[in-house]
Write a structure and sequence with these properties.
Length: about 150
């Protein structure tokens, strides 16, 4: 992302989705907006927001995913590494897992599926459902809304 993609006065970020090629503008969370404001300091819109990460590919030993794992380790969080298929070990706390967390957090705050799909860029309900994980407390609250069956 370059500074041209961030509109700090409007509190938005515009990007092109890799899968669809579609331009999307999303609102920034207040904490992220505040952090970006501390980083801002150039009048050159073509400058990358995080220049040291701009050239990295998603995978590989020195890619974005490994960089994300290093950040997670620095915070002291467990990567939740488990045995994958064959000889591979996989981490449950990945950059991609943030899509699941984001979608699920919004769902658990009763944000509509339609708005969640706009924010995540999911095109189908089926794909979107794979990313939505409901908390037990919310499921319990939904069941409690049912009327009594009158059984004693």
């Amino acid at each position: 992302m370059a500074w041209a993609d961030a509109d700090l006065s409007a509190g938005t970020l515009t990007y092109t989705q890799a899968k669809t090629g579609e331009k999307v503008t999303v609102p920034l969370h207040g904490d992220l907006l505040a952090h970006l404001e501390t980083l801002a300091g150039t009048d050159k819109p073509e400058v990358f927001i995080l220049p040291h990460m701009a050239g990295l590919k998603p995978g590989g030993r020195h890619g974005l995913s490994e960089g994300f794992k290093r950040i997670v380790r620095k915070t002291g969080l467990d990567l939740q590494t488990v045995q994958g298929a064959g000889q591979w070990m996989i981490s449950r706390r990945t950059f991609h897992a943030l899509r699941h967390s984001f979608t699920s957090a919004l769902a658990n705050k009763n944000v509509s599926s339609e708005l969640r799909m706009i924010l995540t860029g999911h095109k189908t309900e089926g794909e979107h459902r794979k990313y939505t994980h409901h908390e037990m407390d919310n499921l319990r609250a939904a069941v409690k809304k049912l009327p009594s069956l009158g059984v004693k």
